[in-house]
Amino acid sequence: KALDDNYVFFDYVSLINGETGQAHGVFGWDDKAEIYRYWWFESSGNYSTADCEFTDDNTLYMIWRDSHLIQTFTKINPDKVELKMENPKSEDGNELIMKVIFTRK
Question: Residue 48: which of 22, 62, 66 has the closest Cα?
Fold first, then answer.
């Protein structure tokens, strides 16, 4: 967290085909626009394409083409957004990999 807890940072390092890749995500609330903003910085050069769909006014659904990972951003209420990252499993549904709750104070 940073800047009076208005932003959440997400960092990772991965090894893809013997190459190290890094990513830095920034999630934050924009007071002026009254929306959540999300920035992603990727150094691996392997950033894949995602198919995105707003399934309703409160939900952004993303499927990453190369990994088939699913990300869902859901507005729970005006002060709360939930991010889920899941790995699809054919027999048992989806495996939850990460869940982040963004709340406005």
Answer: 66
State the amino acid at position 73 in one-letter form. Answer: F
CA 77 to chain centre: 18
Say if residue 52 is exposed, middle or buried (CB neighbours under 10 Å; 0-12, 13-18, 19+): exposed
pLDDT single digits (tens) 23-34: 788 888 777 887
Question: Left (φ > 0), alpha (ψ -120 to 50) or beta: where does 16 sit?
Answer: beta
Beta strands in the chain (DSSP E): 7-16, 19-30, 35-42, 50-56, 59-64, 70-77, 80-89, 93-103
Count CB neighbours of 69 within 10 A.
Answer: 18
For the stretch 6-59, pLDDT in tens is: 777 877 777 666 777 777 888 887 778 877 788 878 776 656 778 888 889 889
Pairwise CA distance, residues 4 & 67, whole Å: 35
Q: How many CB atoms lie within 10 A of CB 41?
A: 11
The whole-model pTM stands at: 0.58
